[in-house]
Write a structure and sequence with these properties.
The chain is mostly helical and about 260 residues long. The chain folds into two domains: about 160 residues, no CATH class; about 45 residues. The chain has twelve helices and no strands. Helix 1 runs antiparallel to helix 7, helix 2 runs antiparallel to helix 8 and helix 5 runs parallel beside helix 7. The protein is globular. It starts with a helix and ends with a helix.
Length: about 260
């Protein structure tokens, strides 16, 4: 039986590969915030309070462009709508926890933490201490994000754009998702979401990400609930066809005679 400590350490270990993609992503955010004119304290505070990479990048860009605060808040809310889907997905596993635990894990719920935690929750076995795994993964990500943000702020514009560090995180997600696509519906949902993300990449407010997410969920659900014959129904169908085939065969023999 697992203990809270073992689950917590397993969560840190499980999120380890993802951190290799988070590091350059946070570094780039720190550089971007510095370039947009934000102070070091504000840039770091955004990482601590918001803790959502895509929303932070977008907010920094809009602040640099002088966009009104209301528009910035609305845009950030739209970009983060996918977290509502994440919450709905993990909610059944967390329903027995106290409110304090739920609030803490809600704060730590990011794309990366969700991908790691939901995979662990779906494994067979008791879910008694698996929220500690979620906590370990979330805190590992949080600490890495804060440290990489601080490094980006300190480095400022010294990181050359030719390094293309922003491409590291999508590659990490691909490596994380592909191995768990074991069913037909999951593969079709992932392929649909990827295709929609490419086709809708030019939509304003980064809405293409939400469109891709909803499209993948819809198509995957339709494939999953598609009516299929059970093995018992197939056997029954074969048995019901057998007498018809026998009668037809007997008639052919009578005609020959």
């Amino acid at each position: 039986m697992t203990t809270p400590r073992s689950e917590f350490l397993a969560g840190i270990k499980g999120v380890g590969p993802v951190l290799m993609g988070v590091l350059p992503f946070g570094l780039i955010y720190g550089v971007s915030a510095h370039s947009a004119g934000l102070s070091a304290s504000l840039s770091q505070a955004m990482s601590s309070i918001v803790f959502a990479g895509s929303a932070q990048f977008l907010t920094v860009q809009l602040l640099g462009a002088g966009v009104p605060a209301g528009i910035i808040l609305l845009t950030a809310a739209v970009v983060n709508l996918r977290h509502a889907l994440y919450s709905a997905s993990v909610a059944p596993f967390l329903k027995r926890l106290h409110t304090g635990w739920k609030l803490l894990l809600a704060y730590l719920l990011t794309d990366e933490a969700y991908a790691v935690a939901i995979t662990h929750y779906q494994q067979p076995g008791a879910n008694t201490n698996r929220h500690w795994y979620f906590l370990g993964a979330g805190l590992g990500l949080w600490m890495t994000w804060q440290a990489s943000t601080a490094a980006g702020i300190l480095l400022g514009a010294q990181v050359p754009a030719s390094w293309s560090l922003d491409f590291a995180l999508p590659l990490t997600f691909i490596a994380l998702v592909v191995p768990v696509l074991k069913q037909k519906a999951e593969g079709i949902a992932a392929a649909t979401a990827g295709l929609c993300a490419l086709l809708a990449a030019s939509l304003p407010l980064n809405a293409g990400l939400l469109v891709a997410t909803l499209s993948g969920i819809l198509v995957g659900t339709l494939v999953e609930i598609r009516p299929r014959k059970s093995p018992a129904a197939e056997i029954e169908q074969e048995n019901s066809d057998a007498p018809c085939e026998t009668i037809s065969h007997e008639k052919q023999e009578e005609r020959k005679s």
